[in-house]
Amino acid sequence: MNPKTVLRVEDFAKQFFIHEQQKVIPSSSNVNLTVESGCLTALVGPTGSGKSSVLKGIYRSYLPSEGSIFFTTSLGDTLDLAKADEHQILDLRRNEISFVTQFLHCLPRQKTEDIVAQPLISRGVKPSAAIEKARQTLDALNIPERLWGISPATFSGGEKQRVNLARGLIAKPRLLLLDEPTASLDPVTTNRVLEMIEALKHENTAILAIFHHMELVERVADQVVTLEPPVLTESILENIA
Amino acid sequence: MRKVLEVSRLSKIYGPGCPSCIEKTGPEYETNICPDCNSVVAAHDMSFDLYQGEILGIMGESGSGKSTAVKCLFFDQEPTSGSATFYDQGQTHSLFDLNKAQQRRLSNHRFGMVYQNPHLGLNFDITAGGNIAERLLMSGLDHYGDIRERAIELLARTEVLTQRMDELPRNFSGGMQQRVQIAKALATNPPLLFLDEVTTGLDLSVQAAILDLILEIQQQEKTSMIVVTHDLGVIRLLADRTLVMKYGRVIESGLTDQILEDPQHAYTQRLVASAL
């Protein structure tokens, strides 16, 4: 394996079995990709080709149905995220892997700056220093200062997305998973986000990102992986039969 | 992260027990009552571990056996079989092999329990402050001034008006009683806390405040917790990992977001689908 490779996904597939309807729903299949340190791999393909399922499978919000997801840790160990135990996954989520989804899930009672500072605090950074860093990150993403002390519950879609990004970027993860990071942003803010992505690449973060606009892919991607609509894999069909 | 607790093959059967108890109960039979001897298999073959600062959720409906593990671990019930190891300050305690005095010592000093029903966790004949003092006395603190000072500190922490510490718990609202219970459970800074349906039956705003308090305690003290609840919202908010129980068996376990987004078992799929 290339020493710069942080993530290597081999023959990944995800299917859901819906008990109520006794149905198998294929969500991704035949996914192969690598992500290298300091590089961005873009995941593209039509709606329904399973791009988000790949990210969720890597983060283990979904249990992968097939394939391997080799991740090289900061200590240089390689482990298969598809099989790693839950404590290992929790530890990696705390220290090495961040996931920025399209939607912000947070408590309606938390201040924006606290939400953004959270990943640093759980890595042991002092709360005052973490909040300071959170404010800098929010500022860099064009979130006005008057919003830092209130909950993002009432924010616009674009503002929520930037809060979500700020939280994902703040701890400078080794691997960053981005699900349409600029979907609801205006051109100025989109540029800011792309600048931050470039800055993270310079700090050796490996990034796997879903984009819909090819123009953005051309601007930031080092590698492009195109997904095809999923098919049911034979081994799954055998298992059902 | 350090392992705090390891539970292995814990079972609890109420009744005489017979060979059919295990064979003829569980989710496939849709019962936890043995058809041959009428024993109740409250929980069978539960295994899980818990790390420092981690919150483990145990989810299930009434009668699924979800409270059984914490009742056994807090020594409120005696397990039928199984083992539990508690790792604390360089020592290893095999919980179900300890004598009563050793068990009391652990439950007074090193564990905290918060029950759904405040009558179980609080002595309603003595004041709120007295309830906390009682636990501090049992843990060896015996200077009146120190005890009172610590009680004031704990009540302030859990946002109970300290002016009311000399009132009886029955004068308090349900949410306030839960706060006093939490203050009492926290009195000895226990590394392990059991929370059994602590927000059930409270107003939504009160629930939210109690859940915030629990998260704050976990973050500041790195307390390990087992949270028993039927409420998916509580699980989503608090638990890192979750066990799902039905008819006395663990039918599914995993990372909480995975359990909620990609549930594997038919029952969990139904549960998640009905909540969203």
TL;DR?
The complex is a heterodimer of chains A (241) and B (276). In chain A, 36% of the residues lie in helices and 25% in strands. Chain A is of the alpha/beta class.
Radius of gyration of chain B: 19 Å
Uncertain runs of chain B are: none
Overall number of strands of chain B: 10
* Uncertain stretches of 5 or more adjacent residues of chain A: none
- For the largest sheet of chain B, list the strands in their spatial order: 6-7-8-3-9-10
Looking at the structure, what is the overall shape of chain A? Answer: globular
Number of helices of chain A: 8
| CATH superfamily annotation of the domain at 3-110 and 240-275 in chain B | P-loop containing nucleotide triphosphate hydrolases
The CATH architecture of the domain at 3-110 and 240-275 in chain B: 3-Layer(aba) Sandwich
* Rg over alpha carbons of chain A: 18 Å
Strand order of the largest sheet of chain A: 6-7-8-3-9
The span between the termini of chain A is: 37 Å
| Percent of sequence in beta strands of chain A | 25-35%
Report on the structure:
- The complex is a heterodimer of chains A (241) and B (276).
- Chain A contains eight helices and nine strands.
- Chain A has helices at 51-59, 86-95, 112-122, 127-140, 157-169, 187-202, 214-220, 234-240; strands at 5-18, 23-36, 40-44, 66-72, 78-80, 97-100, 175-179, 206-210, 223-226.
- Chain A has a five-stranded parallel sheet, sandwiched between helices. A four-stranded antiparallel sheet of chain A has the order 2-1-4-5.
- Chain A is globular, with a radius of gyration of 18 Å.
- The model of chain A has no long low-confidence stretch (mean pLDDT 91).
- Chain B is an alpha/beta fold.
- Chain B has a domain at 3-110 and 240-275: Rossmann fold.
- Chain B has helices at 20-23, 68-73, 100-109, 118-121, 128-138, 144-157, 174-186, 204-221, 232-238, 256-261, 266-275; strands spanning 3-14, 40-51, 55-59, 81-88, 91-94, 111-114, 192-196, 224-229, 241-246, 249-255.
- Chain B has a six-stranded mixed sheet with strand order 6-7-8-3-9-10. Chain B has a four-stranded antiparallel sheet with strand order 2-1-4-5.
- In chain B, helix 5 packs across helix 6 and helix 5 runs parallel beside helix 7.
- Chain B starts with a strand and ends with a helix.
- At the A-B interface, strand 1 and helix 2 of A face helix 8, helix 10 and helix 11 of B.
